[in-house]
């Protein structure tokens, strides 16, 4: 069974992207694969191995501020 996928554009701080590219090279994978793998690992660390309640997530959707200008958001964080 194939996983559903969605293409996104993300702006990374330059140093973070360099680290990701280094890890990708060491693991002999492309940068996109490394980003997905590292994201999944970080999500597991944050959320644990439990299942996500998609119903609860759907209820929260739109209530949590997200999206907008990625460059502006990145500048505010970094």
Explain the overall architecture:
This protein has 78 residues and is mainly alpha-helical. It has one domain. The protein is built from four helices and no strands. Helix 1 (14-27) packs across helix 2. It is extended and about 40 Å long. The chain starts with 13 loop residues before the first helix and ends with a helix. The model has no long low-confidence stretch (mean pLDDT 80).
What's the short story on this structure?
By secondary structure, the protein is mainly alpha-helical. It has 4 helices and no strands. It has helices at residues 14-27, 31-47, 54-60, 70-77.
Offer a few descriptive terms.
0% strand, mainly alpha, extended
Describe the SSE topology:
Layout: H1 14-27, H2 31-47, H3 54-60, H4 70-77
User: How many distinct helices?
Assistant: 4
Rg over alpha carbons: 15 Å
Overall mean pLDDT stands at 80
Distance between the termini: 39 Å
Any idea what the shape is?
A: extended
Number of domains: 1
Please give the largest β-sheet: none
Order of helices and strands: HHHH
The secondary structure category is mainly alpha
Portion of residues in beta strands equals under 5%
Classify the helix fraction into a percent range: 55-70%
């Amino acid at each position: 069974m194939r996983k559903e996928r969605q293409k996104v554009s993300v702006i990374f701080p330059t140093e973070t992207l360099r680290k990701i590219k280094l890890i990708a090279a060491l693991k002999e994978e492309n940068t996109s694969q490394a980003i997905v793998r590292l994201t999944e690992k970080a999500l597991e660390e944050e959320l644990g191995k439990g299942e996500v309640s998609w119903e609860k997530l759907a209820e929260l959707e739109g209530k949590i501020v997200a999206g907008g200008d990625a460059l502006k958001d990145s500048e505010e964080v970094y």
